[in-house]
Amino acid sequence: MSSLKPGVVAELTADQEMPYGFFLTDGENRVLLHHSEMTEELQEGDAVTVFLYHDKEVRLAATMRIPKIQVGYYGWAEVVDKHEDLGVFVNIGLPKDILVSGDDLPKFFSLWPEPGDQLFMTLNRDKQDRLYGRLATENIIEQVARRASSEMNKASIQGRVYRLLRVGTFFLSEQGYRCFVHENERREEPRLGQMVEGRVIDVKEDGSLNVSFLPLKQDKMSDDAEIIFEYLLERNGSMPYWDKSLPDEIKDRFNMSKASFKRALGMMMKEGKIYQEDGWTYLKKD
């Protein structure tokens, strides 16, 4: 059995030059380093540091372009494709993209990463030594995350979503802080791997952050009004909702409380944008 495994860095020797590259050896086994995967010239007998992977024909191959993500090493990888029956493919800098299985992704396909999103992950090998991507567990995130200070309270913050639960969203900020957004602090659930932005509402004793995706109260009325305004436009300027509509109806349609809905309607009426009549709300025509 070969001692050379995909997913790791190896120190090998240039054994034999071929028209298409070099065969490298560890003294017992040989692996091909294609010319396209060389970053510097070699001579037979030279020592070379390479990363091992399987090429598209599932043959063990080598590259001098060493990716940060390896077996046992974590990093961010960009999603380049998705297939509902397989999972998503990510680019870690190899000629061949790496699969993250759908079994490791959210239950709902709508929450799967889109191309351009990024996943915090490592590499594993299956029973046939084929490489696949594995998302970082919460234990790994706790190890790599930085502790935030109290100065972060009320700060704006951005980061990538790394975990989705029914109770809320977890993301790792650009500064390396571990962040949690409770389901009540968001209007919709973001995708895994999506870049998100919010504001810090609490700095926990363990250095993690509680974050809200909702705007401050003084900003929220204008955001709520915008949602209502867009809905009215979609319905040609009228809707069967007004300030006496039931709270559950408002929550189901607009995902906001009745108090927020009434504030937004009041602001829009004060600005002369809408009027109400017989249980309906209408846009005023110019």
UniProtKB/TrEMBL annotation:
InterPro entries: CvfB_fam, CvfB_S1_2nd, CvfB_S1_3rd, CvfB_S1_st, CvfB_WH, NA-bd_OB-fold, WH-like_DNA-bd_sf. It comes from the Bacteria. Residues 74-133 form the Conserved virulence factor B second S1 domain. Residues 142-215 form the Conserved virulence factor B third S1 domain. Gene3D superfamilies: Nucleic acid-binding proteins, Winged helix-like DNA-binding domain superfamily/Winged helix DNA-binding domain. Residues 7-64 form the Conserved virulence factor B first S1 domain. Residues 227-283 form the Conserved virulence factor B-like winged helix domain. Signal peptide: none annotated. Belongs to the CvfB family. This is S1 motif domain-containing protein. It comes from Rossellomorea marisflavi.
